[in-house]
Design a protein that fits this description.
heterodimer; A: about 110 residues; 7-stranded mixed β-sheet; 4-stranded antiparallel β-sheet; 11 strands; B: about 110 residues; mainly beta; 6-stranded mixed β-sheet; 5-stranded antiparallel β-sheet
Chain lengths: ~110, ~110
């Protein structure tokens, strides 16, 4: 099993550009989520999904969109990148919503200039 | 909603000494408290978790204690080694919750 995979590993965007961060898992987990990690801020939840076709907002959803058309994939879209979105982004999947272990992807380091 | 506070933000200990990281949570419904370790440039990985029906759980050199009355839980690492250097995150959730809420993280450095 590959577990949770993310692409790309690194990305540089200019302000106003859009892009999609890809996330896929092969563990048949229903629950998937996106976090951003900033120094001193911990891991903050952006969006999550409890199954195909169902998504909801986390703590910091502004500027991001998600969709979940399959169990395996959970892409994160930046609509119009801003310097404040410079961060490391982690996708995670879990067999359980609340009490399940989160399996994290390797992360995407995004810089917006 | 749930809020998790973690202290200290940085911790430096001598190799062989013990390290303690503390977290407090706000939602009394929370009953699942995991700890994640993130080595430099790597992804966070679960190292231990505790559920509210126990007060302490050990796994070799690491242990977690829980005080539900005071709404705090702690990670204890004994006989620290250089490979324990990492960022540690606590988190809290409950069975019906939609999300796992993380603390701000503690950067632990083990000095030789």
């Amino acid at each position: 099993n590959a577990g949770v995979t993310q692409t790309p590993k690194f990305q540089v965007l200019k302000t106003g550009q859009s892009m999609t961060l890809q996330c896929a898992q092969d563990m048949n987990h229903e629950y998937m989520s996106w976090y951003r990690q900033d120094p001193g801020m911990g891991l903050r939840l952006i969006h999550y999904s409890v199954g195909a076709g169902i998504t909801d907002q986390g703590e910091v959803p502004n500027g991001y969109n998600v969709s979940r058309s399959t169990t395996e994939d959970f892409p994160l879209r930046l609509l119009s990148a801003a310097p404040s979105q410079t961060s490391v982004y982690f996708c995670a999947s879990s067999y359980s919503r609340g009490r399940g272990q989160r399996y994290f992807g390797p992360g995407t380091r995004l810089t917006v200039t | 909603g749930e809020n998790v506070e973690q202290h200290p933000s940085t911790l430096s200990v001598q190799e062989g000494d013990s390290a303690v990281i503390k977290c407090t949570y706000s939602d009394s419904a929370s009953n699942y408290f995991p700890w994640y370790k993130q080595e430099l440039g790597k992804r966070p990985q679960l190292i231990i978790d505790i559920r509210s029906n126990v007060g302490e759980k050990k796994d070799q050199r690491i242990a977690v204690t829980l005080n539900k009355t005071a709404k705090h839980f702690s990670l204890h690492i004994t006989e620290t080694q250089p490979e324990d250097s990492a960022v540690y995150f606590c988190a809290a959730s409950w069975e019906g919750a939609q999300k796992l809420v993380f603390g701000q993280g503690t950067r632990l450095t083990i000095n030789p």
